[in-house]
Amino acid sequence: MAAPTLQQPSFLLANLKADSTTKPFLQRCQDLVKIIDDYPAKELHVIFPWLVETVFGSLDGVIAGWNLRLLHSRCNEYNVVLGFLNPSGPMMKLVYKLQAEEYKYEIPVNHLPGPVKACIQQGVLPDCPLFHNKLQFPPSGLLTLNLALNPFEFFMFNFAYCLVTPKNYPQGQQGSSADSAYFVLVDTYLKYFLPSEGSVPPSPFSDSRGSVTAPSPRSSSVSFAGYGVHSPSLLKHHIFHQPSVTADPAAQEIWRSETLLQMFVEIWLHHYSLEMYQKLQSPQVKEPFSPTEEHVLVVRLMVKHLHAFSNSLKPEHLSSSPSAHSHTHTSPLEEFKRVVVQRFVQQKLYLFLQHCFGHWPLDASFRAVLETWLSYVQPWRYTGEKTNPQPDQNRTVPDKWESFVQENLLMYTKLFQVLLNRAVRTDLVNARNALMVFRVAKVFAQPNLAEMIQRGEQLFLEPEHVLHHRQSRGYLTPNQGGSFLSSRQRVVTDMVFRVKSHVYALEGQDCQYKQMFGSELRGAVMKLIQIIAQARQTAKRISDHSSEMASNNSFLSWFGMGPSDLGNGFCGVEPEDSGECLRKTHENLDRALENLCQIFKLNQGQLTQLISNLGSSQDDGNCKQLPDCIQGDNGLILTDLGRRQMISGLRRFDIQYQGDPELQPIRSYESALLVRLFYRISSLVNDRFGGHMNALCSRPDFLGRLGRHYLAEPDSAAKLRQSPLSRRTSEKNRQPRLSLRPLASYRMILLLLLFYGLGALLSLSPVSSTLLVLTGGFLYGLVMTLFGDKLKTH
């Protein structure tokens, strides 16, 4: 009787694998729910790794799983998946069922983030306690190390890793958005295991001992104070001497919360160490990991929730000093809220953002990175308070947040400097880029924030000998010869210590700190202001040019009497940089200038003089010049100066279509059938009579001028002089030809129909109307040939 029992788990797994290719998705989920309810943990243990891989995909990305990042609310399986993976759903019930039996599941060390993997392969314990006491040592050596994770850790590792696993999605489909199943599940797990109100719900499954056993990620003697910060000791623990971890009854309440957060932070953020980031400054070093926009958006969701979670701390537990809680009872969850941002997230998020700031493409997708940073540096936005909401610019930052600013000083100052270097290389004429510069200036211009940052910098720059002098006097009581000001001195000393510890932990002991409000950065800010002013002028010039072009579309041009617009289909003004967007660009840049002046206390008179000098130095003739180029064999080649001129919006190419006008894409106002038909007819005529057309247009007399009016594109030579096309292509496109394409536009068809209808009302035959059209066209060409030059000059 024992033999069938031993074979049954394999038989169950084989059946599930067979069903995965034959049964519909809904029925498979229903079967899994029944199996999880009916089967004991001993049999479910075998199918658990396969089920996790089926849901989240394999760690190498070969197996896609359920494609949670592509599953949106409009999909039929969406609600079924969310219900199955809900924190109180069947999958989590399976996790708790296996957790009670203390099963372990292995993860190869090769799939861990780079810094963690490097530590383990070097024989050093990682900083994160999550990976302690879990290493397995096979006889083959360190290269085949595995981590033995409990079911909850194994589930959360695969869930988090699903975001960073490179997957080959079908063409046209992209990753997660705010309504994807993955994004919603991340939000659900954060709210469930890190609740802003109440406590973490207990496990829905209980074993014979009454509760699910907590793996105790930290020992009872290790406090939160040691999390996420560099140890002052130079000694490192070897992995063969992993400290033993004893059960901590107080940790039972929040072990799932700790595990979830540590897993998210390690998998999503811990791809860069300080040493690795310093090596990345060399252009020869290949990036170990490049986050996607989808990845950054999920990180921002986590940052916002952690601020809300931390801000829900009860007022009596707000003190940041651990000694303040030594004599009072604090629940583990409240203690966790107090340190969660600083100890768990700060260091890894700082390196993550710094890498993104330096390596992200100079395009509008950087907005996701920017908003993640701005969310982190504004924790006061996530307090849950609903009292008289004001615009960010008018909302004074309360003094109680000064300690947060001090303990996160580099998040404000260093990242602002990196962003400044990025902004001067960005095209600020683009409306989206201008909006990003305005957003940063608006956030830092909030009343009281700049002053807090300045005071934090002054604390960091406090000389060491003054600090030691204060410390030697600060801890004397009045009975010992001290004064009642000693408490004040002690507070200042603690603040200095906090700021210095923060900077040295994130940048190293030998860091060279640059002040945000120092003279060097002030010069960089003035340079940015100059570029913003240049971008404002360029945006205004493009807007004026667009208005001028629109005004030229007169009544006669609507009737086909004006110049054809076929050559302007690929103009230099992008859709987002035209019309309403240009107005918004100008408005955002104006407000960015005002905010920068407010942040750095710039003199408005000097700013006005700078902008006026800039305007007077760029006359209209200079504005219309091309970017700095040199003439190459195949056309113009940009110099480094020309590239900078284009990036800053000072100069641009007058980009126009310079290929074969007959081969341009069919417009929405043209009949595709007629365009193709007229192209074939004109091609036959041009092939047969091309020589005669050439001879006619080459004549210097009146007939030659008349022929050039009908058969050659106006001003084509002048346009092509500014084009980087090869000379051979230029000469080919400059040949005289007959073009019937204007007749294929719906406007021309309508005009002809109206004209023939009017002729019918006047009792004119179609032949007579056709002769009138041809005569009118000939007379118009005759007038333009005789008086065209005079009309243009006038």
Kindly describe this structure.
It is a single chain. By secondary structure, the protein is mainly α. Among the domains are: 10-100, no CATH class; 104-149, no CATH class; 194-202 and 250-314 and 334-381; 399-463 and 495-550 and 578-618, no CATH class; 661-788, no CATH class. It has 31 helices and five strands. The chain has helices spanning 2-22, 25-38, 41-56, 78-85, 90-99, 114-121, 151-164, 181-193, 255-268, 274-280, 293-311, 332-359, 367-376, 402-407, 409-423, 431-444, 449-460, 464-474, 486-507, 519-551, 555-558, 580-599, 604-617, 620-623, 640-647, 672-698, 702-711, 716-720, 727-733, 746-761, 766-793, and strands at 105-108, 135-136, 146-149, 629-632, 635-638. Strands 1-3-2 form a three-stranded antiparallel sheet. The protein has a two-stranded antiparallel sheet with strand order 4-5. Strand 4 and strand 5 form a beta hairpin. It is globular. Residues 1-9, 207-213, 216-247, 322-327, 472-485, 554-574, 619-623 and 715-726 have low confidence and may be disordered. One of its GO terms (molecular function) is sphingomyelin phosphodiesterase D activity. The chain crosses the membrane at residues 744-764, 770-788. It is found in: Membrane. It is a single-pass membrane protein. One of its GO terms (cellular component) is membrane.
